Amino acid sequence: MTTTSPLTHFDAQGQAHMVDVAGKAATHRIAIAQGRITMNPATLNLIVEGTAKKGDVLGVARIAGIMAAKKTSELIPLCHPLALTRVALDFRVDAASTSVICEATVETVGPTGVEMEALTAVQVALLTIYDMCKAADRAMTMTDVRVLEKHGGKSGSFVNP
User: Against a cut of 0.85, is the pTM above it?
Assistant: First the structure.
């Protein structure tokens, strides 16, 4: 029995497979993702003042996010390994909500997009913040991880409303 699905990671029989991108044009592709980790005010203060026991929380989280983007195809079974041309992570402290917002921008020139790499970078950066601060605050919450924008390829641009 064959089924039709808009999901590209399933074949006509419903079996999971890696999408063949050989026939797709190599274009400049960009994805921007964002997420947030909310914490107690005292924990946020440790991060801002740089007095967390494990060191520079945001510096380590930045490196972790970059490394994660490069390893996405090893973590997500059907992702293609990509030659990334840029991975940048920015952090913004939001004192009003006692949170840190992470934004990752990932770029490549290739036949497939980099949304998964940007999302992975954000999530691993947030997990790293959690890991480095969990001794002070085990109630931290990671939320709102999403693609903000993607550009390039046949489908063009997407901006999350």
Answer: yes
